[in-house]
Amino acid sequence: MKSNTVLLLATLSSSALLMSACSTNNSNQTAPAAAVSVTEQSTDIEKVGYSLGYMMAEGNKETVNDLNLDTFERGFRDGYEGKKAALTEEQMQKVLMDYQQKKEKEMLSNMKTKAEDNKKAGAAYLAKHGKEAGVKVTPSGLQYKVLKEGTGKSPKATDIVKVNYEGKLLDGTVFDSSYERGEPVEFPLNQVIAGWTEGVQLMKEGAKYEFVIPADLAYGETGNQGIDPNSTLIFTVELLQVNPPQANAAAAAMPADPTK
Asked: How many Å apart are CA 22 and CA 179, to the nearest integer?
């Protein structure tokens, strides 16, 4: 959150400087933005102004998602036109720091709520899914279902595996898929989440399994990019090939997490 706020301030400052460099006389720029119509036929300087404004807003709307556009425009115009600020520099710095701290508290509170909700949802799903026909549950809590049995060899944790896979959240959202990328991936099996390391060792080459992985065997209370804390994950995995560690040094250097 802090880095986003700093980025926002830097973006505003650099954009204001760039705009001032584009024009040394802004006496004719008093009309409100709503009165200006911008098209491909607009002048270059009109398109520069619109582009900067749009990109600033689009790049920062999530960081400052409750911005008062009227006071933002007033402050921007006053600063750009060299008018005396309504607040002192010290007051403005304090306002921004207080806002940043408020947003950080909100973020932490929201993450905590999500973690609690996801934990409950995951427990309920696992309890129901574990009773379905064909579903097996390991002592760790990992659940799996054989969609297609293989006939090749099974990997050890230290082996390098080549797989196709799709990862989904409980609501059906696909957060990662080698199918969508159009090619399988290879990685050392002991360098992924615990649910994968355990589950894929149950497979043989040519097999296709569905895994339901509890949060403590996935990304736990911290979550991951695109995955909220305490998320139970559903993976469909096809084991295409198993190689010993030394057979593919290049694959061993790949990121540990195939979903990154």
From this structure: 47
How many Å apart are CA 68 and CA 44, to the nearest integer?
Answer: 28
CA distances (Å), origin 127, targets 203, 212, 227: 23, 11, 21
Q: Is 132 exposed, middle or buried (0-12, 13-18, 19+ CB in 10 A)?
A: exposed
Relative orientation angle of helices 2-22 and 89-129, to the nearest 10 degrees: 130
User: What residue has token string 């736990």?
Assistant: 220
Work out the average pLDDT over 143-171: 96
Nearest to 100 by CA among 63, 58, 60, 56: 63
Q: At which residue do the structure tokens 């659940």 appear? A: 143
Ranges of H-type helices in the chain: 2-22, 44-60, 69-80, 89-129, 178-181, 194-200, 249-252
Q: Kindly report the length of the chain.
A: 260
Q: For the purposes of burial, counting CB atoms within 10 Å of the CB of 82, is it exposed (0-12), middle (13-18) or buried (19 or more)? A: exposed
Q: Which pair of structure tokens corresponds to residue 141?
A: 């809590």
Quote the CA–CA distance of 37 and 49 in Å, as a whole number: 12
Measured distance CA(115)–CA(95) in Å, rounded: 30
Q: Is the dihedral of CA 88, 91, 97, 103 positive or negative?
A: negative
Question: Which secondary-structure segment (H or E) carries 242?
Answer: strand 233-243
Catalytic residues: 165, 175-176, 193, 219, 235
The whole-number pLDDT of residue 34 equals 53
pLDDT in tens, 214-232: 999 999 998 988 899 999 9
33: left (phi over 0), alpha (psi -120 to 50) or beta: alpha
48-61 burial by CB neighbour count: b if 16+ within 10 A, else e?
ebbebbeebeeebe
DSSP 134: T
